[in-house]
Amino acid sequence: MRVSAANLGFPRIGPRRELKTATEAYWAGKIDQAALRETAEGLRAMAWQRQKAAGIEVIPSNDFSLYDQVLDTSVMLGAIPEIYRAIGPADSLELYFAMARGRQTKGGQPEAEGCIHCHGAGADVPAQEMTKWFDTNYHYMVPEIAPGQSFALSTTKPIDQFNAAKALGYHTRPVILGPVTWLLLAKSKAEGFDALSLLPALLPVYAELLAKLAAAGADWVQIDEPALVLDLSDAARAAFRTAYAELAEVPGIKLMLATYFGALGDNLETALAMPVAGLHVDLVRAPEQLDAVLAGARKDLVLSLGVIDGRNIWKADLARVLDIVDYAAGEREIQVAPSCSLLHTPVDLELETRLDPQVKTWLAFATQKLGELALVAAARNQGRDQVAAALADNAAAVQSRRTSPLTNDARVRARMAGVTENWTRRVTPFAERIRRQQAVLGLPPLPTTTIGSFPQTAEVRKARSAHDKGELDTAGYEQFLREETERAVRWQEEIGIDVLVHGEFERNDMVQYFGEQLAGFAFSRAGWVQSYGSRCVRPPILYGDVSRPEPMTVAWWRYAQSLTDKPMKGMLTGPVTILQWSFVRDDQPRSETCRQIALAIRDEVVDLERTGCKLIQIDEAALREGLPLRRAEWNAYLDWAVEAFRISASGVQPQTQIHTHMCYSEFNDIIAAIGAMDADVISIETSRSKMELLDAFIDYKYPNEIGPGVYDIHSPRIPSTGEMEELLIKAGERLSPEQLWVNPDCGLKTRKWEDVKPALVNMVEAAKAARAALA
Length: 775
Fold this sequence. Notes:
alpha/beta, TIM Barrel, 28 helices
């Protein structure tokens, strides 16, 4: 039986972040809707052409989004909360971006958003809640539902994009997020409300959409149901059976049910029982499930095998992949595909001109992964002999990485072997530590601080780019950075912030900055991936053993502290977050790589303390992100993740205060692990959830100090003093005021000074008011 090459989704940002440039220009009022849509149309056409040229036979459509595919689905279904409805119709960009980013009037006029007429009702609204997409670093907008929710097909985006592809000569397979996963991701303000009770109201809209796609000429539709790799209740499994019994009845359309990010496990029987025409399984994350899938699948079920890693950038071992395909193939139809959408990988390795040539030969970005899929299909259909040269090149690259001295450092491995239990804990209990720290720091109740970064303005980016290109010498660049740092320090002093930060103007990214100074990392120039909306990151490429050749942050901390008598935090990124936000080597356990990073960060922590730093923040924004999707695997991960943090933090004296920061995480189910980290102060996101996340810390009786974010930095809204004071009062009702710090919910790098300054002034005033109210 012939094998075909299929793709589940392609990066939407463009090879040079064209989507980011266009959306931010639109938000700033520099281009209109027509120009933004034209850019989007061009990026979609480019993606289709690229996939066709690579030899992909099953090309997706509707994998493109201006901001987020979950938000697209919510709007398409008419699941638009009442506060947004006055802004515009469901298919308007004004409404769409208000849900994504929030919206606020300024001086009686709306913030520039490409819409100068929309003021009054609906003009001042917060953004919807945002959180991580399963265990990735992509963020999605959380759907909001309510009892009695009604649904209606409110936009025709999947049909429009299918038709656009067809007009260009591409017959595509539309991609839609499945109804059960969408409901399981949704939240309701009604306590105890069962989201799955809305399934009967939701299914007719999905059926209508499928019918319209069939009428437009689609023969297959990919329905993504990644929730099938989670621990599911019997009710959720029943919901899947109900949903697909109904949707499979829509005439003229075949359904490819796509699962990814893990094994179907105890949901396999449910998945195989559904009357769909095809099933996609992730054989990168869960290769062990193949035998059970083959044994239980109907003979006429098309199997899509996710054999190319959609979340990492290493070349696949194609000989091994072909062995898997040969094993699975027989009398049934097989597709070879990435494990998940290629959304999580950079666009094109060919844009990289400065990578170490040897390291580059080990890599495959999204475009190259398309080629790998096409090569696997050709080898299977035509015979391996027909593509022997290409397979030989692949085998040589794979073997080169396995044996290269670049990937192995005997000194690092010897140090790892010498780590003892004393390296993983602070000997002095928190109660004694905090007493000594308060004596040293002398901070008021509800001390104010920020998470670390300040706005990376156009001037900062311009100076960094000029230095990078050799147009600005190092002395001139560092003088510029010193001036930016001093302005930030003086301004913080002026408004009365208690614990200062230096602003991180010298840092391009909270992970990249450290990776560039650690051994074992390489860096791309165009390896951008989408984190959320227009926010893109360039994950470091962690290819070898990790060590810290020399101090990374000490000089900048020393300079910043010299400018003020107030305490200045040292700012570091933690080992788990560096691991999670990098493209990590896959030739050894992630736990081992994480411990190597932890030792490198420990060296920096100790050097900061020796230099006089009294507060050191080790950000672990991604701790929960790394949590396995299946609860049975949690303890093993949390054991090594918490140990890695403690290795990094435990080399200091009791009077040195260790902070950490986590953002956009549900903490209830891992609160014991957070307690086990034993940080003196933790800052978290709580503004969008209205302090809901603090409930976990109450029930657990969290003993250490905590800074619940009172200011949502991911929205351009400027919260009022009263708004933040109310949040602090709520926090004070949940935890002892003596435990509380006052801070934004994340770093301020992506915001503008004109937004940051009034917001932080309001935050300081809110802290003063709350001190009086909670006294």
